Amino acid sequence: MITNIVSLSLIDAATTPVTHVFTPASRVSDNTARWVDREHNSGIAIGYASVSFSVKEPTNSGGVYRQKLNYAEPILDLTVPSVPKVLGTARVNCEFIFPDIMSDQQRKDVIKKFYSLIGQASAVTLGDNVAVQSLPY
Known about the structure:
The protein is an alpha+beta fold. It has 2 domains: about 10-100, MS2 Viral Coat Protein, CATH 3.30.380.10; about 105-135, no CATH class. Helix content is about 15%, strand content about 40%. It has helices spanning about 105-120, 125-130, and strands spanning about 10, 20-25, 30-35, 50-55, 65-75, 85-100. The protein has a 6-stranded antiparallel β-sheet with strand order 1-2-3-4-5-6, with no helix packed on it. The longest helix has 15 residues, at about 105-120.
């Protein structure tokens, strides 16, 4: 568990995997932490991949916690180096909604099952289906 904001190390799926280090960046708001990968996309700010995480607590008894985890990775056109252009941005937006009555272990179980659903490439996860944009048949 991250208690103080520290760098995140995310590993890609290249044949020889590359670790991408996301360093803490400015906060978007009081309840949102943000990280950026300054090393890739030629170190150009508009090309930084980013991660953000926010937590919203229940507003009343018996409510739900909402935690949003977002990832964005711009694709740049660097054919004119002095004028980089964003061609598009890959995004993943994930929201966890947990009733406040759930235990820590129950929440950990849900998160682990979700990770297993899209996790390591295999014949029984959906990660590859997402990557190749193919519905199981």
